[in-house]
Specification:
The protein is α/β, with parallel strands linked by helices. The protein folds into two domains: about 220 residues, UDP-n-acetylglucosamine1-carboxyvinyl-transferase, Chain (Alpha-beta prism), CATH 3.65.10; about 220 residues, Alpha-beta prism (UDP-n-acetylglucosamine1-carboxyvinyl-transferase, Chain). Strand 16 and strand 17 form a beta hairpin. The strands form six sheets. Strands 2-15-17-16 form a four-stranded mixed β-sheet. Strands 4-5-3-14 form a four-stranded mixed β-sheet, covered by helices on one side. A four-stranded mixed β-sheet has the order 6-7-9-8. It binds shikimate-3-phosphate. Shikimate-3-phosphate binds next to helix 5.
């Protein structure tokens, strides 16, 4: 259990956060299915992305970490096997805590000639897989839940010819969309995934970068449809993964909360389908400047943040809901911490998806904010936070959820007494060096 105390002085300094988790996973997966080799720099060496590497190695893909990096930049080289070159794994594929590995890989496996089985840790075995099993079955795949509860372990029967579908998903989920599109690479006919709001579109951007024919269709199917036309091979590419905005969000929040702070975070991905957190805190008066914006496969920028007193846009209740939610779904825990110390009432709605993340995040946010003295109530699809109550230290149960551990580490910076966080090592999932970077900013 780690012990943390209030920030002794303003946070000053610069930080590079690790590579984007979603983009790192996809880099390895798409490179494995490509012809020729791909070089990946900026790859996130967190437990989730290492699970993806392990799984593809078990399917015969040679993936090398450079010991002596060229020009000092650590590089991962993936020797692609082409769309039809994966080998049958000799044991079940273990995805650890990673929903992205599990769901995206299921789409690929559903179209292979061989049988396979996927499973993960205790949390993965509770997460809903019916949401991918249904569309995959519509495409002609045979995917069964071994325990019959629509959860992992999943058994995937190979050797079935898939056909394209038009799928209307009832929730905006990039994992579901990506699973279907990846199966669609092997299907006969086009695959279309329609969502109520656009979820992160890294799969569309990156598959196109690797050579696939895929786009977001704003006319025929509405702005939140992805359309894939199969038949194009993928080719090896060089990929430079930007810093993860989900990881940057913790230090953005820290700088906004601690008076006098000024922090510069370098090279962060700012894809608009991921950047809702920036928009939301700006609406609450956050002083954030984007510098050195550029686009290298995905848009990125340096983010300069200065301490700001957060308030509701019209000194009224701040309602966070609708299409912005999927663009900041992983940042809701840290956003809730900010809302608790802001000078307003915040209603977070349309966020029922929080219940099926690494933990039930509506419950784990409310439990821990309440333990620190905040006024917060859970609702069916979010929570209501009456901001402005001073926070005190508490024992935080992270429920082994990395985003809960990091959000409440940041909350400790404004708590009046010591905060202890249980199972803080779960930050390894997405940000293994989190506490080192956290301390360097505090002690600068
Ligand atoms: C992810 C999509 C999101 C997100 C997860 C990563 C991805 O999940 O919460 O951390 O890389 O596609 P959903 O698709 O379930 O919303």
């Amino acid at each position: 259990m780690i012990k943390l105390t209030r920030a002794p002085k303003p946070l000053k300094g610069e930080v590079y956060v690790p590579g984007d988790k979603s983009i790192s996973h996809r880099s390895v997966m798409f490179a494995a299915l490509a012809e020729g080799s791909s070089q990946i720099t900026g790859f996130l060496e967190g437990a989730d992305c290492l699970s993806t590497i392990d799984c593809f190695r078990k399917m015969g893909v040679l993936i090398e970490h450079s010991d002596r990096p060229l020009n000092g930049v650590p590089t991962i080289t993936v020797h692609g096997q082409g769309l039809h070159g994966l080998k049958e794994p000799t044991s079940p594929l273990y995805t650890g805590n990673s929903g992205t590995t599990t769901r995206l890989m299921a789409g690929i496996l559903a179209a292979q000639k061989f049988n396979s089985e996927i499973t993960g840790d205790e949390s993965i075995e509770k997460r809903p897989m019916g949401r991918i099993m249904r569309p995959l079955s519509d495409m002609g795949a045979i995917v069964t839940s071994v325990k019959g509860n629509d959860c992992c372990p999943l058994r995937i029967e190979g050797g079935h010819t898939l056909h394209g579908i038009v799928y209307h998903n009832s929730v905006a989920s990039a994992q579901v969309k990506s699973c279907i599109l990846l199966a669609g690479l092997y299907a006969q006919g086009d695959t279309v995934v329609h969502e109520p709001a656009l979820s992160r579109n890294h799969t569309e951007i990156m598959l196109r970068y690797f050579g696939a024919d895929v786009h977001n269709d704003a006319t025929r199917y509405g702005p939140s449809a992805a359309v894939l036309h199969p038949g194009m091979p993928l080719y090896g590419r060089s990929i430079n993964v930007p810093g993860d905005i989900s990881s940057a969000a913790y230090f953005i929040a820290a700088a906004l909360m601690v008076p006098g702070s000024e922090v510069l975070i370098h090279n962060v991905g700012i894809n608009s389908t991921r950047a809702g957190f920036l928009a939301a805190v700006r609406q609450m008066g956050a002083d954030i400047t984007l510098l050195n914006e550029n686009n290298d496969m995905e848009p990125r920028a340096d983010i300069l943040v200065r301490y700001s007193e957060l308030h509701s846009p019209n000194n009224d209740t701040f309602e966070l809901g609708g299409k912005i939610i999927p663009t900041m779904i992983d940042e809701i825990p840290i956003f809730a911490v900010l809302a608790a110390i802001s000078n307003c009432k915040t209603i977070i709605k349309d966020a029922a998806e929080l219940k099926v993340k690494e933990s039930n995040r509506i419950d784990t946010i409310v439990e821990n904010l309440t333990a620190m003295g905040a006024d917060v109530t859970a609702t069916d699809d979010g929570m209501i936070i009456n901001g402005g109550k001073p926070l005190h230290g508490a024992i935080i149960d992270s429920h082994k959820d990395h985003r809960i551990a990091m959000s409440f580490a940041i909350a400790s910076l404004v708590a009046s007494s010591e905060t202890r966080i249980k199972d803080e090592e779960c930050v390894d999932i997405s940000y293994p060096t989190f506490f080192r970077d956290f301390r360097s900013l505090i002690n600068n």
